[in-house]
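In response to a reviewer's request, we include the raw inputs and outputs for one of the modeled complexes. The four entities were modeled together in a single run.
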Amino acid sequence: MNETVGSMVRLTFLVQNLFADVGQGCGLTVAQSLLLCSLNDRAVGMAELATKLGLERSSLTGLVDRAEQRGLVARESDPSDRRAIKVALTPGGRDAGHRFHDQLRVRLDEVLSELTATDRTHFTRVLAQLVADVPAVFSD
Amino acid sequence: MNETVGSMVRLTFLVQNLFADVGQGCGLTVAQSLLLCSLNDRAVGMAELATKLGLERSSLTGLVDRAEQRGLVARESDPSDRRAIKVALTPGGRDAGHRFHDQLRVRLDEVLSELTATDRTHFTRVLAQLVADVPAVFSD
DNA sequence: TATTGTTATACTCTATAACTATA
DNA sequence: TATAGTTATAGAGTATAACAATA
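The model returned the following structure tokens for the whole complex.
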């Protein structure tokens, strides 16, 4: 395996493990962490949310069910369309999402702190180029 | 969210999606792809394999069961310890693993082809530094 | 008819706890 | 006693297909 490719896969698993670990510390599964990150700024309909998360609508039903049972999100009815449901963060969900977000930033910054300032600047620029077409995971 | 951190998370999801997509094209789940990659060069005992994959032994039992039902791996007894089981690739599992490996390399190379040669060299060096402590996913 | 969301069902993946067989 | 592996059980996550309500 090509060296750059192998390193990219390893970096991926490093970040995924960090993501899962930080989530666990906040009482969140990976899927729940992504759900909360998708709701940071506004209530979102089930269909739009499913598209954003890359899930079937039926899969999202279960994910939202479990998150709702844990008090992280709430379903709201939409006055303008009686078929539609909007999913919104509860105060507890917002707290958990913020803690997750902050801690992930700290943990990833630790990883990046090994780099010199020059390397980090360069790395940031190249990363931005590589992920230009990838939708943002976080709303900020 | 800090820009470098956000880009790293996005790169992670890009690579993970690629990993899952290539696996699906080879008839493999993500867990099965990782299992095959861990067996590339030799038969491995269940306990060692569980450690390598970061799973409980009982979780690995099920993963190997399903992979065995699909003809990807086989359990072999160990003459030197009658408690032990070694897991080995079948010819079909070896084929699937090679196809997965080759296609993933191609797909990731496509992503990296956006970079100039200079950027890629620099990126490779920085990546190697970041993942120095992460165990290799592939055996080569 | 098309869209929104849910239900029913099935499978994969994972963990914890209890167990068997062997060292 | 300690180790290797399995079984039993539970829960999360996901998909497909069929459905109900509304647009």
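As requested, we also summarize the result in words. Helices of chain B lie at 3-25, 30-38, 46-53, 57-69, 91-112, 117-130. The longest helix of chain B spans residues 3-25.
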